[in-house]
Amino acid sequence: MRCSKLFGGFCPGRENMQDMSGYRSLFISEMRTNLEALEDSISLLKGNPTDVELINEVFRITHTIKGMSATMGYNITADLAHKMEDLMSRIRDGEMKEGDINLLMEGSDMLNELLEDIVSTGQDISVDMARLTRKYEERLVRRIPPSARKRASEDEDAKNRKEDEKIPLTAIKQDKTPLSSVTKKGWRGEMKTYEVRINISDKSLLKDVRAAVVMEKLKKKGVVKTVIPSAEDIESENFDGNLIVLLETNCEPLQLEKEILSVREVKTVSVREAADAPKREGKSRKKRENTDLQSVRVSIFRLNELQSLIEELVVQKGRLNNLASSMPSPDLNDIASVIESIVSELTGVALELRLVPAEYMFRRFQRIVRTIAREQGKEVNLVVEGDNIEMDRPVLEMVGEAIIHLIKNSIDHGIEPPHVRRDAGKDPVGHIWLRVARERGYSVFIVEDDGRGIDSERVAEIAVKKGIITREEAARMSEEDRINLIFRPGLSTTREVTSVSGRVVGMDVVMNILKRIGGTVEIETGPGAGTVTTLRLPFTTAIIEALIVRIGRERYVVPLQAVLSILSVYDVKKGGLMTTIAGEEVVVYKEDFYPVLDVYPHLSSGTSEKKLTDGGYLLLIQHGRAKFALPVDNILGKDDMVVKPVEPLSNAFRTFSAATVMGDGSVAFVLDFPLLMKWGGISG
């Protein structure tokens, strides 16, 4: 059995299998990476079924998964991967049939389910494989592929291949033993360094194994100094069958050529003294080696620990700044300024470490769409745009849960069955688009479908029947308010309970997630016109840049990313920027209208009316699509803040979305914009 690089070349014997649990976490990590690559490759193959490179890529990944799983003793996973590999073997031979790609997708989905079982239980036995196994067996029964017929007489080659597979790939890795410590006993003649170029046949199905055999032979002849490409690339067959080896040996070139050509499927060999080797190769190798050292794998738990320490550092930095401002000491001020600069830079670096591509989250959505659509007898295609955007991982994971609910909702409520769509003149295949973009410090996620849309009248009718609202309230509601009823707990428009919806858990989960991370949601829809749901959420929820303001006698925190501009009340009045529309004060600034919110009765202790004194300020705020002016008595400063969500344990806390510890040790609250907008009658 050939061992994957997963285990560093260690190939456990039967007596060592009980110790394999120590490799479980590494196996899970490698499996996730391979399954993500498999899902991507199969999706691409669906659109390009004759692409030879994609076919070989899927074959290679299934082969790798099979070997990894078998080594760890996860035989059900290994057996499924083996069946997928057999199917890919037939496809490689040019015998692709209708439905093969869909079967590969089902296999990929099942491998993911098996991996989740391994993560949760340590075993891969809880998934019912019978139906899928029968499908594969029906596809593969009584088949002798052309490649097998061609090799039928090559019994000796099969035997040699079996022996070759016993050689660990670590034979390829560079021998870093100093030349002075190498025993030269039995060597004859002058030691020379040769550049050995080997070309393995394009028809070889096991290029990595052939490369390992070649390297094993070369190591017996001398000291291997350099190998191009790297062992990792060779194992993954991420090379074209060409090897370049720098070998220090006393053997003659002809002897080396003869030895290497004895390896089956080696096509050509050339040996020459390294002094004649092109310099470009050396530079290429150096660059490759440097690249290999540029990244390391770090546990997310370590990153969370780092984030917690930095958050504490930010709090202590605030205390230091507060102390420096109260003590007139130039040295202390200088130290505080330097510390502030370092902490700010460190905060940025820590955030960069936590950033992951949105693609990290989107990979699983294709699988979810396929599974739900298959259960409901629908045909649905998910199109993802903008997945190259990076986001803070905790935020991404939370919004991922919300998007899953939206996608499920689109399939269950929005996308019609194929025959219904066909009768309505639509494409029988429904479409869901997931788009991601950046907008003024916010990440924007848009989920759109071309389904039946939302009937606001029916939503309101169901809400009345369930006692969520009264019939009088429904009559007074706007179209937007009726649609937003779907976010109320317990409301579902599904007529029958399915595995997806109808169990009194649904869109209210989306709203709760967004509240926790300070996001907003907007819905545009109409009967027969599909639905567009837009989520806006902050780039990160841990540390924000914020303004500290005073309203009345209280201090509050305003996220700076939401502030478009800061105007003094004096300048607004002097410049004639204030006007009255329908009895409400409005600021007109750069051709936009900003209603002035009356927040004093809610936020200012002892003050019950709006105060726009000449010494005050108006913060022009944008939250989602809404714009408004927030009056404050004073701006106390700007700083990085560690914010923590505030659970709505009492009516007092429902005014705020989060809290932070100030430099003097006191607590200040982060204003809740959706609530402020509700007070001011402003739609989000």
Topology:
Elements: H1 24-47, H2 52-72, H3 75-92, H4 100-121, H5 130-140, H6 146-150, H7 155-164, E1 192-200, H8 207-221, E2 222-228, H9 231-235, E3 242-249, H10 253-261, E4 266-273, H11 279-292, H12 300-326, H13 330-354, E5 355-357, H14 359-376, E6 380-385, E7 390-392, H15 393-414, H16 418-423, E8 430-439, E9 442-449, H17 456-465, H18 471-476, H19 479-483, H20 507-516, E10 520-525, E11 531-538, E12 543-551, E13 554-559, E14 563-568, H21 569-574, E15 578-581, E16 584-589, E17 592-595, H22 600-603, E18 617-623, E19 626-632, E20 634-645, E21 656-661, E22 667-671, H23 673-679
Parallel strand pairs: 6-8, 13-22
Antiparallel strand pairs: 1-3, 1-4, 2-3, 5-7, 8-9, 9-11, 10-11, 12-13, 12-20, 14-18, 15-16, 16-17, 18-19, 20-21, 21-22
Helix pairs in contact: 1-2, 1-4, 2-3, 3-4, 3-5, 12-13, 14-15, 15-20
Structural notes for this entry:
The chain is an alpha+beta fold. It has five domains: 14-174, HPT domain (Four Helix Bundle (Hemerythrin (Met), subunit A), Up-down Bundle); 180-291, Alpha-Beta Plaits (2-Layer Sandwich); 300-356, Helix Hairpins (Orthogonal Bundle); 358-453 and 493-538, Heat Shock Protein 90 (2-Layer Sandwich), CATH 3.30.565.10; 543-680, CheA-289, Domain 4 (OB fold (Dihydrolipoamide Acetyltransferase, E2P), Beta Barrel), CATH 2.40.50. Helix content is 44%, strand content 22%. It has a five-stranded mixed β-sheet, with helices on one face. Strands 12-13-22-21-20 form a five-stranded mixed barrel. The protein has a four-stranded antiparallel β-sheet with strand order 2-3-1-4, covered by helices on one side. A hairpin with a 5-residue loop joins strand 10 (520-525) and strand 11. Helix 2 (52-72) packs antiparallel against helix 3 (75-92) and helix 3 runs parallel beside helix 5 (130-140). It is flat, with a radius of gyration of 32 Å.
